[in-house]
Amino acid sequence: MEELKKAPVTVVLMMLNAIVFLWVEVTGGSQDTLHMVKCGAAFAPLIESGEVYRLFTCMFLHFGMAHLANNMLVLLVLGQRLEPVVGKMRFLIIYLVGGLGGNIFSFLLALGKEEYAVSAGASGAVFAVMGAMIYILVRNRGRIQDLSARQIIIMAAFSLYFGFTSSGVDNAAHVGGMFCGFIVSVLLYHPRRTFPRKIRKVEP
Question: Is 50 left (phi over 0), alpha (psi -120 to 50) or beta?
């Protein structure tokens, strides 16, 4: 509980995703593809026709409880460690901009391949947080709290592997989100160098 108090944005994002999920369930069902499209899920032909808001709204929609739970669990694990390090506003920017970047990459790839599917989920944004973690772990010499660089890289590798070996997964959003999260953190995270308060004078 104490750790969550240090990560209020993470908690709010989790609550928002849960509230939206409950609303979708009550109004028609999160497993109903047509209803998900009506609620704002991403679909390349509609985005191309001008409904660009779907690139954002789809980040808060999930296909079923398991989909929501998996994304929120990873967000909880990473968010409560990353947010105190980068700050509330930077964490929110990483999550939203990284997730949006992942969805844009997925959209452009779908147009190029002409393979259209309804897409929704916070995983692009969650992978953006993961990408930011990788960069910041490197900057912090390999550790944030109890997470090491090796652990987060293994987590990222397994997550990507699971996505590429499963059907119905928007892997482009995952890869794009991770890359965008990494880049955004490079731009935003500039830890100050620390110097000793007292410098001892040494005679030559």
Answer: left
Give the tens place of pLDDT for each residue, 150-186. 777 777 777 777 777 666 778 889 999 999 999 999 9
174 a catalytic residue: yes
- Tens of pLDDT, residue by residue over 56-101, are 999 999 999 999 999 999 999 899 989 998 999 999 999 999 999 9
For the chain, where are the alpha helices, taking DSSP H only? 2-5, 8-27, 33-39, 44-48, 54-57, 65-86, 88-113, 123-139, 149-164, 171-188
Known catalytic membership, residue 123: yes
Burial class (CB in 10 A: 0-12, 13-18, 19+), 24: buried
User: Please, are residues 184 and 93 in contact by the beta-carbon 8 Å criterion?
Assistant: yes
Stretch (H or E) spanning 199: none
Distance CA 107, CA 101 (A): 10
Helix, coil or strand: residue 121: coil
Choosing from 30, 106, 174, 185, the catalytic residue is 174
Among residues 119, 123, 159, 185, the one annotated as catalytic is: 123
CB 19 within 8 A of CB 95: no
